[in-house]
Amino acid sequence: xxxxTLLGIAIGAIIVLLILVINIKMSAFVAMLLVAAxxxxxxGIPVEEVVPTMQKGMGNTLSSVMIVVGLGAMLGRxxxxxxxxxxxxxxxxxxxxxxxxVGAVTAAAFVLGIPIFFDVGFIILxxxxxxxxxxxxxxxxxxxxxxxxxxxxxxxxxxxxxxxVAAAGITGADVGLMLAIGLPISAVTAxxxxxxxxxxxxxxxxxxxxxxxxxxxxSEKSKAAQVVETAKNRVQAVGAGTVMVLxxxxxxxxxxxxxGNMMLExxxxxxxxxxxxxxxxxxxxxxxxxAYLVIGSKMKWSLEKRGSILDSALPDVAVIVFVTGAGGxxxxxxxxxxxxxxxxxxxxxxxxxxxxxxxxxxxxxxxSQGSATVAILTSAGLMVEPIAxxxxxxxxxxxxxxxIAFGGLxxxxxxxxxxxxxxxxxGLSVKDGLKTWTVLTxxxxxxxxxxxxxxxxxx
Length: 459
Hints:
Helix content is 78%, strand content 0%. It is mainly alpha-helical.
């Protein structure tokens, strides 16, 4: 099947999906499964391979998302029910003033995002974002959008995240130099994202329910309702310092694992243990257990209530998990069909500057199959020969690799698991998510690339 036909099918599939979700109001989970199956058949995937392809996409996505989303939601729920998010927000707001809160939280997200994955960081910070918004009496999107953009910027561009590290290994870029150069570029990019987010019209957006907005209530109507307290009745026995420790604990644990992987020889006993201890799943599990003990003790909760609070977090994120998995199904169908490869081949054939080609190929792959990491790795593999043939210096190779990484930043939409995590946690509809989050990530990605290209022209 020709590249033009494949691209036409991809565009048609996305249009149909948007119509189903936005206009017909069909469940996003059902709509994506339906469109994925139709796309698989339209692109020539054998009938007997359609369901296995869909199952593989679901499995690959949920294997990395389900544990993180579940544990992250539990940690956030414990903090939120105890009034910890409001306590932290009140403390920071008093110290910094309302005008500096958004900038401070965004800067903190940028720093915290360096060692941890985007989805982990966003899920942990989401209840804090809503706590700050309540205290400052502002729209949560004012904080949530720039925080998300800052987290995603460092996720795609800076080591030790898997995308940039693996891309550097493919292109031969020095990881240390990539971090040294990428850090200031990413900081400026996140700063621009902060100001761009302020220009996005959000006043008319009606927020939907969000797991991050759930609070506990002691009513006896049902077991689930026993853990839902109103904001007026909550006792803020958990102070800002305790909340900070609980948030930083899994982050520091992940950092420990990252440092171990970088400093210790692969396969050694120390490296293997630190890698396990510093994994997102174990780090968040540790955070949940510590919060269960510390918050439960401070709040004088019974063991039954502590367990009920933990369980109450799961129904609220079930939709996120299922929709994210369906996004993985659609993405895997697009990858298997060869649509991404057709886009890349078409761009390579244009003989444009290598750094521009790398960015555009990564952007095209990001748009076509959703995963930023997959887009970055695939693009690096496609560009490795042109980069080698160009005879670039070490600095130039690093900058081209960074340009590829920024290509994976933009165009976050319905086939991206991160899109669903952000929109569901911020209470955005699909339409509003496309108008805000998709636009913001695309602008930030282009800014990061232009800054990188500017430095490339200077060296």
